[in-house]
Write a structure and sequence with these properties.
Blueprint: H1 12-15, H2 19-24, E1 40-44, E2 65-70, E3 73-77, E4 80-81, E5 90-92, E6 95-97
Antiparallel strand pairs: 1-2, 2-3, 3-4, 5-6
Amino acid sequence: MADPRRTSSSILPDVVFGRHNARDLGLADRGILSKGQAADVVLFDPATIIDRSTYDDPHQYPAGIGTVIVNGTVVIDGGEHTGALPGRLLRRRGAVLA
């Protein structure tokens, strides 16, 4: 994947996980935003999103991400972690998807 700090083109279409990807992976309850479906949603400002990590200090949250929702639970609110950990390991036919 391209490094967004080193390219002028948008990489967003390459990272969106949609219904076709979910179907190909055998994940029937994912890939669309609809009642009864599991979804992870990231709300961000494309004008300010930036990776703040460096090689010397790699564990930094990016700027410009205001809200993250995982399986219907807000985990990042106003750029701050809420302490919620609703994520779970996904499996397909005995394989771990990570």
